[in-house]
Design a protein that fits this description.
Length: 738
């Protein structure tokens, strides 16, 4: 087992997982985790019996490669694998499982060998006739032995010499327990003597029958050797297939073990997210802890610096984060809320945890730490955990040194989690935007750590309080506090406040820069839109002018005509041209403006004139201009002038849909019906105030799943969606956030 498993306290967890495997193997899957997860999710919807224990067959395959011969029980281990895949191919499934098992074509000769075995590993009768004859002979001799023993026990002459009427098994021989003097009545061989002075005797007639039995057994062994050689020769011809199906069995075994392990403990799968380094944990619980406090964490930057109270859970938090990464990397199910969590992909994982001091190698604590760092400085794209980074040397010197080392690791794309009591190191790193701070909290009233954490601050170690909690006398702690001094305490507080303010300033600067960039983008977008509208307006105006000119020319031509009929005909043609022009080229609208609300006596502007509103009627208004003229105009032709009257308040009521539900089942619907139902369901959910709903679509051919996914991607009110956890539908359902 990997040393990292022991460092992360995952030994018992992995031992429990191994119990679900049909045979021991490498715990980790090679290849794309996303693809492996698809197969596991497909198995979730399939009822199947897990495989029985099977031996490792690597040495047997190597022997066949050298044209060697296998034993009967070794051949039967291959038969177990062949029979299990034959069983899987009988299950009703579709999709990737059907494609996988359908491409495994078992040769007919291998199937015939498989059919020749019983469930207990013995050969069936009726296939190897000579072997059947030998077995029948052995059974006959066994019956003769039992009958002969029974006859001997019932002889009246022997009764006086019998100690009991039992048949004793001594050195694999059936014997009678007799008193001295038996040789006058019974010929036999003394096998053993009891503690009370009696004799275990093998009767001569039974010995003769045993010789027959042994002779038959030797013939049976010779026949079995012949049969196994014959079968081994056939297996050698299909060596490539046997190697292939042996690997496929390990692959399936890895899938089914993960699935049944997850079901047994209520665990969930979380595959690593490619091309991402964010670690977002929701309700994660380290498997080694009993009744643990769950962890929810959002770690997006490159460095997570955990400070704060001693014995407050810093090391366990470090182990928990790395455990989640480790389990996700190898697709081992873990105790987590998977659909609200996300773990990035890392090339490697390292943990610097224990004191590396070693008297045998004459290495100090700090020297050992430097050796460990020198070995990982060459790595890139990985994740590293360092517990108590300040071990073994002066804090001020170490702060500067570790700052440089951490920056070097960050430049190479590594993600780092450290625990420390170095306030100077924390202060040096706090101003870096790539660093997240997390402090373990302490309940000063109860004088106990809370095992909870506060983001964005440097925590206090509470060394004096911890010493008291673990039995150090109060007088000694009081003396230490006096020696420590108030000035040092004030300095620590200043360091913490300074770091906090610097982080706040950095965040405000980033926010301002982002807002400025967004504003510039919006201004550019509006300018482009304005230019496009102006161009459209100019083009439409030019077209209208051309049509009007054509209509006027037609009218002029009509005037020149002598006949009244021709004049009317040309005028009608002009009207027709104008009508077609209006239909084909409607008057372009200027950019939409907010609707204006007018009131009686409100000041307005009409073209180049100003006046007041006398009365309002639908979309028209009667106005009086300042020169005294009263006219009726369209509301679109007037604009407010001076103070704009406050629009009347309005109240909109939306009735909540009756029987609103957070679950929708689309099983059995056609694509068009499903989309119509889903659209109505999302609208009702929004009105009802739901921010998260569950949609069942099933797996089937995958058509309905694709249609639902495409619709959710395009819906403006869908924030995000993901596959449901196994217990809520798995791959056949979606959790939708609104």
């Amino acid at each position: 087992m990997l040393p990292l498993i022991k460092q992360l306290d995952l030994e018992e967890f992995f031992k429990s997982f191994e119990g679900f495997l049909a045979r021991p193997k490498e715990l980790f899957l090679q290849g794309d985790s996303k693809i492996h997860l698809r197969y596991i999710q497909a198995l979730e919807d399939l009822e199947f019996t897990p495989p029985k224990p099977v031996q490792n067959l690597d040495s047997q395959l190597a022997l066949l490669k050298k044209f060697g011969f296998l034993k009967l029980d070794e051949i039967f281990e291959f038969v177990k694998i062949i029979r299990y895949f034959s069983y899987l191919k009988t299950l009703k499934c579709e999709g990737i499982l059907y494609e996988w098992w359908n491409q495994i074509l078992i040769p007919d000769t291998i199937l015939e060998i498989s059919k020749s075995f019983l469930e207990n590993g013995n050969l069936k009768t009726g296939i190897y006739l000579e072997l059947d004859s030998i077995n029948a002979g052995m059974e006959r001799v066994k019956k003769e032995i039992a009958s002969a023993l029974n006859q001997i026990l019932n002889q009246n002459k022997l009764t006086a010499y019998l100690v009991d009427r039992q048949i004793h098994l001594i050195n694999d021989e059936e014997c009678l327990l007799l008193k001295a003097g038996f040789h006058h009545i019974l010929k036999g061989q003394i096998i053993h003597r009891s503690a009370t002075g009696f004799f275990y005797v093998l009767p001569q007639s039974i010995a003769n029958l045993k010789d027959q039995y042994n002779a038959l057994n030797n013939r049976k062994e010779e026949q079995l050797l012949h049969i196994t050689r014959e079968i081994s020769s056939v297996l050698t011809k299909h060596l490539l297939f046997l190697g292939f199906i042996n690997k496929e069995f390990d692959r399936f075994d890895s899938y089914q073990a993960r699935l049944y392990f997850a079901r047994s403990l209520g665990l969930e799968f979380l595959a690593p997210k490619p091309n991402d380094s964010a670690i977002i944990l929701s309700e994660f619980r380290h498997p080694a802890l009993k009744n643990p406090k769950s962890i929810s964490l959002d770690f997006r930057e490159q460095v997570l610096m955990i400070t704060g109270v001693n014995a407050g859970g810093k090391t366990m938090l470090l182990k928990s984060i790395l455990s989640a990464v480790f389990l996700s990397k190898h697709l081992i199910p873990l105790p987590i809320n998977a659909h609200q969590s996300s773990i990035g992909s890392f090339k490697h994982l390292n943990l610097i945890l224990e004191d590396p001091q070693n008297s045998k190698n004459d290495i100090s604590t700090f020297g050992g730490r430097m050796l460990q760092f020198s070995q990982i400085l060459r790595d890139s794209g990985g994740i590293l955990g360092v517990d108590e980074i300040e071990l073994g040397t002066d804090s001020d010197e170490a702060a500067s040194l570790f700052k440089v080392l951490l920056e070097n690791l960050m430049q190479k794309g590594n993600k780092i989690i450290i625990t420390t009591h170095h306030k100077r190191l924390a202060a040096l790193m706090a101003g870096d935007s790539r660093v997240q701070l997390l402090a373990a909290l302490f309940d000063e009233e109860r004088e106990m750590p809370t095992f909870s954490f506060l983001s964005g601050t440097i925590g206090k170690s509470y060394a004096f309080e911890t010493a008291l909690r673990y039995g150090i006398p109060k007088s000694l702690v009081k003396e230490a506090k006096a020696l420590y001094g108030e000035d040092k305490e004030k300095l620590n507080a200043l360091i913490e406040n300074s770091s906090r303010l610097e982080m706040k300033l950095q965040n405000e600067i980033l926010e301002a820069q982002q807002n400025n960039a967004n504003l510039k983008q919006k201004i550019t977008h509006l300018k482009n839109k304005e230019e496009a509208l102006e161009q459209t307006y100019a083009t439409a105006q030019e077209k209208l002018e051309s049509n009007f000119a054509e209509a006027i020319n037609a009218a002029k031509k009509a005037i020149k005509e002598q006949s009244q009929e021709a004049i009317h005909r040309q005028i009608n043609f002009a009207h027709k041209l104008l009508k077609e022009a209006r239909e084909k080229n409607p008057a372009p609208t200027q950019p939409a403006q907010e609707a204006q609300t007018f009131a009686i006596n409100s000041r307005i502007k009409y073209r180049n004139h100003r006046g007041i509103v006398l009365s309002l009627h639908k979309d028209k208004a009667r106005i009086q201009l300042d020169d005294g003229m009263k006219i009726q105009v369209s509301l679109k032709e007037i604009k407010p002038y001076g103070n704009i009257p406050k629009p009347p308040s309005s109240k909109i009521e939306v009735q909540t849909p009756q029987n609103a539900s957070v679950v929708l089942d689309l099983h059995g619907l056609r694509a068009e019906e499903a989309i119509e139902k889903l659209d109505e369901f999302i609208s009702n959910s929004l009105i009802a105030g739901f921010d998260e709903v569950l949609v069942y679509h099933g797996i089937g051919t995958g058509r309905l799943s694709v249609v639902v996914r495409d619709f959710l991607k395009s819906h403006p009110k869908v924030v995000a969606f993901t596959d449901a956890p196994p217990k809520a539908g798995g791959f056949g359902a979606k959790i939708v956030k609104l």
